[in-house]
Amino acid sequence: MPTGEDLIHDIDSCQVARGQLAIWWLGQHGFAIKAGRKLIYVDPFLTPMATRRVPPLLAPAEVTNATLICGTHDHVDHIDRQAWPDMAAASPAATFVVPDLLLPGLATDLDLPLERFVGLDDGRGRKVAGIEIRGVASAHELLDPDPPTGRHPCLGYVIEANGCRIYHSGDCCIYEGLQTRLKHWRLDVMFLPINGRDAVRLASGCIGCMTYQEAADLAGALRPRLTIPAHYEMFASNSQAPEPFIDYMKVKYPHLRTAILQHGVRFVYQQ
Description:
The protein contains seven helices and 13 strands. The chain has about 270 residues and is an alpha/beta fold.
């Protein structure tokens, strides 16, 4: 596993041609995605914790290159409240993308100006620094819109940059209407959780995601050019080996491409 200095050097020095993406898995559901000269961080989880099985690959102050820092929902392994102020200082031009429902509270709690944020909701998009990003409601484990406003606390994001289209689901289960929302786009890369859910975890407050079979079937329905499984290996009590997902895809959807990423190791997607 590379040091933070080595990882940042690899990200900064990597040249990404049109129609390519360079991707680094940061652990859990966190990724650094380089699209041309733009650097997008989605759900970077950088705070040390005793229960982590994968240590932080970067210190927040090392993230000096961010264009967008996206958080899908307000759990520590997705919106890392402890890390974000240091990331904001290290990347002063970066914009933080969050569910609009969370925006005022986050800005206040983190003592960051509202101007550093963009708030999205289901079906709502913005163009930020030349990157198109749109919110897609996520069900974690259920859709839970705010009753007064209908805004969603958990989102996935469809991101269009460098001629490529990405879907990062955030923590999400399958729900009626998810496929319909996503079929509007021809996806290049799709990041999906595979850790699943059960009564024991839910009773302890650990809210679940897709099973590996559900993630595979969503990929089969949407036919992205590449599917990358995520949200495993970080916590012993909330994990799932990725090999069954890959095996299931090979048997049921042999025409679709998948990849298991290694922590901190560059992966290049080419259209």
